[in-house]
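Hey, resending since the last one bounced:
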Amino acid sequence: MIEMEDQTNDLSEARIPFLDYKTYTDRVFFLPSKDGDNDVMITGKLDIPEGRKVIVAQALNQFSNLLNSKTFLINFIKTLEGRPDFNARSRVYFASLLTVALHGKLEYYTDIMRSLLLELMEEYVHSKNPKLMLRRSETVVERMLCNWMSICLYQFLRDSAGEPLYKLFKAIKHQVEKGPVDAKMKKAKYTLNDTGLLGDDVEYCVLTLQVLVHGEGPDVTPVKVLNCDTISQVKEKIIEQVYRNLPYSQRPKVDSVALEWRPGSTGQILSDMDLTSQKEGRWKRLNTLAHYNVRDNATLVLSRVLHTHRQIHQNQDSHEESEYDFIICSVCYP
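The structure tokens again:
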């Protein structure tokens, strides 16, 4: 409880990462896609030849009028669901597009959804097991219901439920990170999921690092880590502590920063893989703070680095060495 008070005392509404309504609905309605930002159905920006714009605009207006007809819309949905090529992904996509199209007329949308739900309930009662209803989004109306609930919940999440849910997330994350976490498999000593339990008994101790951010003044930020943490895990914890007042999207990424340890007058770059990495056959161990013999209250410097294009096209071994050399240059000559 005392540790969590330290985590949440300065937590204000401005620091809780609430999404704006449009981003929230986009993420709920549509599956992640590389071309999501350019999806015509989402952006509404149609690339239409100048000579066809008038005809297309008329056709869209006529289709919009048809969607406002309850009889047409219900039959339209049933016709699509009757097609063998109208798979589950297509149903989710169609339901989300329909939600966006009728977003300004939620009463009408609710009426359509209610009518389709009543028919679905009747179908399950007579021909299927009623207990299985709504377990999977197998129909358009099930996805419509999910979207409708997401719309209705948004303001409640912002006003009431968002803050305690975020604090719960922070508490679980804090508890998990108090013990060792496998950098690759993500299994942890402290976990809520027994399938993700770390089986190995790893010896570890807690270290407090004094972190300086290169180019951001002389202020030192104390950061608690474990000596068994890999360098990437240490970077993650440092970034979370140093940039805790910034939204996650505005924080630097782990691969865009370098970590330098200054045990004396000279500095040493810390990285997951370098020339000092221990080899076991054809495998290499990821470097940890214990590997570098970093002690409690050690001073580390966090620096921004830029990646060169040539790094991307090299094989793994040469990639590791060139990245190591490049980071050294970036830190020494920012």
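The chain is about 45% helix and 10% strand.

Sorry for the duplicate.
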